[in-house]
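Entry for the shared binder. Reason: the reviewer on the internal report wants the predicted structure included alongside the sequence.
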Amino acid sequence: MKASRTIISTLREAPNDAVIASHQLMMRSGLIRKLGNGLYVYMPLGYRSLMKVQKIIREELDNAGLLEIKPTVIQPGDLWRESGRWDKMSGEMLTAQNRQGQDMVVSPTAEEAFTAIVRDGLSSYKQLPFTLYQINTKYRDEIRPRYGVMRGREFTMMDAYSFDKDEKDLNASYDNVAAAYRRIFKRMGLNTISVKADTGSMGGSGSEEFMVESPVGDDTLLLCPNCDYAANVEKAACATEVPLNNEGKPQVKTDLPYEEVATPNVFSIEDMEKFFNAKPTTFLKSLVYKVYNSAVGLTKHEFYKNAETVTEGGQTYIPESFVCVIIRGDLEVNEAKLAAELKASGAELASDEDVLKYSGAPHGFVGPVGIKIPVIADKSTVDMHDCITGAGKAGYHIQHVEPGRDFTAFITADVRTCKEGDKCPDCGGTFYMKKGNELGHIFKLGTKYTKSMNVTYLAENGKPVTPLMGCYGIGVDRTLASIIEGHNDEKGICWPMSVAPYQVAIIPIQYKGQMQEVADKLYDELTKAGIEVILDDRNERPGVKFTDSELIGYPVRIIVGDKNLPNVEFKIRTAEAAEMVPATEAAKKAADYVRDELNKLNNF
């Protein structure tokens, strides 16, 4: 490609809303242009790199035996009602009605569409297992789109769905895709961290994220230095400590009845520490949470026995409910864990009005003794004794509380937020923390969608069976941005060879005379050798061409100047200095370097 025949539109300064390296560099190098809030257009150079990312993904998935299809971006809303997610995901979805008044969805994800596609053609166990995938456009109505294509509203995603007869097949499909992911990211020059993760609105059980370390990452990772434990903070578990009393010894049961204490102006844990002269490990922190679309069986609790429920997609849930969460005083509740435990679409702290309505006390005085709504106890409270907590009425706390004696939890579960310094549940090592960006996510969905959407096949015994599903996704735009986040310097992008828009740039000081002849000859030799090369034949000052080449980040640069001929300047983008080589040898040297770099990325 000759530069004069493509679009190169670099900027000296990044736009004000570009605050991370990838967004700044993609805008400055002209890889993308902004069309609207959260909407970006890939320009020719950026689109070449995006297509290379897709090509690597496609090659590795095809090699792993996955089957590519091309579903529509627009989906019937009825499919989302079948699955039970029409209301749960309404805030994220862009919807419209066609001329017949039928609700339609601009795809934010494709579990429903793939399940419906398979339902129409699956009949026998002999067809299973298989995994289908697409690389397609998605749209999610992000509340705060930011960081350019890292978190845009419209984006390109690879999503795959496995359909399996049993757990053995599902595990094999899951492991097969996970191995392909590792090859994909390695070929792109990315070092990923595999972490346990929350399944979120997708549902299911087993879940794993492929993360890259980033100082501006959306996710917080907890890692153990002594073993391979790694988890997103939304999912991370940690070893449960023995709760200690004020003397630093394990807490012991008390026979004293709980006692009400007037505590005016004592609202927070810090206030309680001062008032009772006690450590927060002796306090039961009680918080009222509002829970959305819980399907965990809260109707078994007395308070919700007659609650109104909704059945959608074969699943029954309470649209809105309230629970009291108790946790050791020095810990914090993890809302993602709480929602997952209650099989809910979300959970948040209740409003002051609702706290008073459902607990009988304002925030700061809530307690589990005598409360009517279900009590969800964190595992940190299991061995707590002789505790202090809210009395359930304004201005009072109670002491000498014994869990199990004075109140009974409806559910006991791990709903705490783990943090740096906590202990690994596997080996006891001390967690450290990193920020990361999610590139890929894989789930074991089980029968969540196949059951709600009535997908069956005939087993060997002739009886209908519901197949299991796995779900696998890679954010293509986010992956490209993450490559740039991890490969740049003060001058611009430093592309890995496999995803660079062009592998070699030939830059004549002036595109005329002998410089033009040598540049054209190098261009022809490299093109015939299968190397992707751009020849900067623009009528621009040499400094502009050099600056653009470094900003855009071509891995190899060959400068042709009349003062150096018959030699040319050969410069690797990441090298400190250039070297002079005979023009007759430059093409071979560049081709050999390109192939060596590709081999390093592709061989593992």
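Summary line for the report: The chain has a mean pLDDT of 93.
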